[in-house]
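Example with several molecule types.
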Amino acid sequence: RQPTALESMAAVTDALLDEEPPLFIGVAGGTASGKTTVCSRIIQKLHDDGIIRPDQNVVVVCQDSFYRPLTPDQSALAKKQQFNFDVPSAFDFPLLLTTLQRLLKRQPVDIPIYNFVTHSRHESVHHIERADVVILEGILALFDESIVGMMSMKLFVEADPDERLARRIARDTVERGRELGGIIAQYLTYVKPAYDRYILPTKAVADIVIQKGGENMVAVNLICGHIRQALDRQRRRRQAGRQPSPPPLLGA
Ligand code: ADP
Ligand code: C5P
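Resulting structure tokens for the full complex:
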């Protein structure tokens, strides 16, 4: 059967409202500050509290996925922990920007998969069909002005530098195939100076600074409350758009 006029209007309204960008949140902070942990806690709570419906998709885009592929010479340096992965030029910001722009238009994207052991991209990619909430997580997530300009919420995760180094040593020896001496040399030569020069200054653009990383459930609860309000506003706009318009006034 042909769709009724009301159904056709509802379909048009849905299409228009689908163009409304998904909520976009940035999560920056130094290495091993707890960015990944904070994102996991937020997503867990969004699901547990029913803030996100089961059919809605929260997508975490890790900035690490957008490390530039290395030349053979750079790769040899990286294997000796003599390559600087903490400066903006290490990242493919143009690809990150276009990927985020597509996601925010609710278009499908392919996210590269990065391997910290080989310092290279996998051949396969992670395909995302659509997102309702997008979280960009990474040391320089709040660095690029065009990307930051698209965000509805900006978070900076802070933790004591000694604790961050201790956590990085524990993680990189176990998960990233690194030796203790190399981790410390890389940290002192590249990671710490880049934190002071490029990462810490982005704290100034953050709406919320999260102390104590993923353990800070007060911050996680506040952030989820804000996400709930933003999604409710979107839903109300959608429902208002579906209301049939009042009949025309007779004789008008
Ligand atoms: P980031 O994403 O900022 O690099 P992660 O959330 O991955 O940081 O945390 C880095 C490491 O530190 C992980 O191994 C994680 O389990 C651990 N970690 C995170 N937060 C804490 C914490 N509050 N106390 C102890 N270890 C933590
Ligand atoms: O997860 P985290 O935020 O710690 O990841 C960023 C860190 O990963 C950077 O501080 C960078 O030094 C490190 N890195 C690395 N080797 C790579 C890519 C990034 O040690 N191949």
